Amino acid sequence: MQKAKAIELDVAVVDGVELSGSWNRMFEPRAISEYDIAVLDETTAIPGAESLGYCYQCGKCTAVCPVDTVGDYSPRKIFRRTQLGVSLVDSPDLWLCTTCRNCLRVCPKEVNMIQIMPAVRERAVLDGKAPDELLTAFENTARYGNPIGESPRKRAEWAKTAGVMVPVMAQKKSPVDVLWFVECYPAYHPRGKQASVALARLLNALNVDFGILGNEEKCAGDSQRMAGERGLFEMLAEHNIKMLSKYTFNHIVVTDPHAYNAFLHEYPKLGGDWPVQHYTQYLAERLSALSFVRSIPRRITFHDPCYLGRHNGEYDAPRRLLTALPGVELVEMGHCRETSYCCGGGGGGMWLDSFTRDYTSERLSEKRVREAIEYGADILAVTCPYEVPRFEDAVKSTGNAGKLAVMDIAELLAYSVGLTDEYAAN
Ligand code: SF4
Ligand code: SF4
Q1: What is the extent of the structural domain holding 258?
Q2: Which of 86, 110, 126 is the last residue of a domain?
Q3: pTM higher than 0.85, yes or no?
Q4: Of 16, 30, 126, 371, which one's alpha carbon is 20 to 30 angstroms from that of 414?
């Protein structure tokens, strides 16, 4: 694109005095038109990234972007840098956004980072410019069906430790009411497995007719999609849809808000359209059937997962479960519900901690843990499988070991109902 010419102003002279007003034309578009905006044009030409060009620099996003609290970042800044000729495809900025959606909540021009980021990242991935640790997560997912690199044959091994029936659909060979889509961290991570055991016991206590896919399940793939690997996401989705389609069930219950997002919005586009609930929604509807036998006399605060809350509007179900626990005092952090801050794990952030360290003063999970402690919480309750490992690490790295326990809501419920013995892991 050619540089636009500065506006030529008429000069009016009255009684020998120049009245052009050129001295106060500082807000004319002259300054902006002097930039070569070829890089901005190239970026906004990427399908999905068009709205980056709508930015009019009001700065509302900078005030709410969690990454700006630990770095120098926001859509306004990304737009400005692109306008000045810094290619987003080549910039570290491309990998810092957690797709938390907080900026879109306030942006008057609907600059949509939830579309811009995966679109531009996809271009960067194709150009071989993605950070190595993200590529490792992609390769693990492609090879093993999970980003951790665990054996697909071990995906259902956690169920052997549950102490209750966890039927696998291929063996059950009969219809079920609920297909529980377990996901990767709840199947493999040591703390994720503890939450899975708790949820399995709760489902049994409620006499739910359920089954899991077991080894036939692969990662739902939503975070890989947001991190720029749409092709991998589609491969995973097609596999999961094919496996699910073999069985008869009434609805899907998911452990993971990222899987919830995929089943709600993305899988239907690929032919996988089933009613889906996050497990907190499912349990909240059945609260009256749970008998609480143990009190938890603790101050608990809740971290809203971005992909359950801001992305999909569910703020109440987790709180209904927490307030039902005998003895619990629920305190809200300053950033809660719609204004909640991200744990740093969304949009591929789960696999980019080493990369982001060079561009941020601390991890978002560390900032969130400090906030929970400031509000006097004994327990940080979570309901996304990325969060227990992220926040437990952050409790230790901020020097707060022993001051704050991180618990999945399923673990708290199972303890209070008398199905497990532990509720404070650290
Ligand atoms: S809120 Fe929207 S329009 Fe305002 S600076 Fe941020 S991206 Fe630009
Ligand atoms: S989606 Fe979240 S992390 Fe990304 S730019 Fe917007 S506010 Fe910042």
Answers
A1: 132-284
A2: 126
A3: yes
A4: 371
